[in-house]
Amino acid sequence: MTALRAVSANLPSRSVPVASLQKELDLSDGQLRVMQRVFGLSEVLREPTGTVAELMLATARGLDALRGREHLVRYVVQARTMPAVAPYPVNPLHEVRDALGLGHAQVFSVFQHACASGLLAVDLCGKLLAADGDPDALALVLTGEKTFTPAARTVPGTAVNGEASAAVLVGVGGERDRVLGYATRTHGRFNAALSLTPEVAAQFQQAYPAALAEVLLAAAGRAGTTLDELALILPHNVNRVSWVRLCRDLGIPLEKVLLENVPVTGHCFCADPFLNYRTAADRGLLRPGDRYLMAAVGLGATFSAMVLQH
Questions:
Q1: Which intervals hold domain Beta-ketoacyl-[acyl-carrier-protein] synthase III C-terminal (predicted)?
Q2: 77 and 140 Cβ atoms separated by less than 8 Å
């Protein structure tokens, strides 16, 4: 059974008020007010210096469980939102692999699920490790991207993007943070993502709550549990209003969703659920045996959820 052996988070040094980004993001006064008052966005984390390789490396070096076990790492996987994060022939993932002394590992990236690719990477690594048959083998999943283009800085009308990163050490078996159920679905009619026509974009907004609810319920069902039995939901940090609406529709108490990072980190691509896990673990919000759910939505439109047991 796939398990998270360790999770680390790296928070950039600079906190930028969303209001100061109004011109950069081409927001009208009205759009800015919606971002702040309706979506609950206040600040976003940005790293003023450094490359995407340095973001990933700083996070990986925060994994105490990796030290002395580098020889057990069979896969190094970058889970990312964007198809390209550096100009050819630069390969940030190879730089990180070499800096960590993991030259023996196989490396590759997944981005097909956009911001839901982090959950995809965990599931995929678990399957690869199980097929290999070595109970001690590990996989390292890395997340975190730079907002290096205008398109990377925001999801129009939805979120402002940040540059926090997370790393996950994946194994097979163990007693903690075991994956009990995973569900994902891509709604192909919205595959144009940021290029949707206004009419289709409106259809996506209308379909969004039911599509997200569908995978939450499916993941819980595959885990043999219900949403009511979950101790905590770790969301993607796009905004607050989408989770308020979803909780209302599903009858979930809003306090069960960890939303405290939404106003202060921004939406950090594939890292969000793992950043929220780190917050929950550090604050003692998860007890041994608790079942919890990670959720993410990627442009395109892929909806994913994963139920785990702490």
A1: 222-309
A2: yes
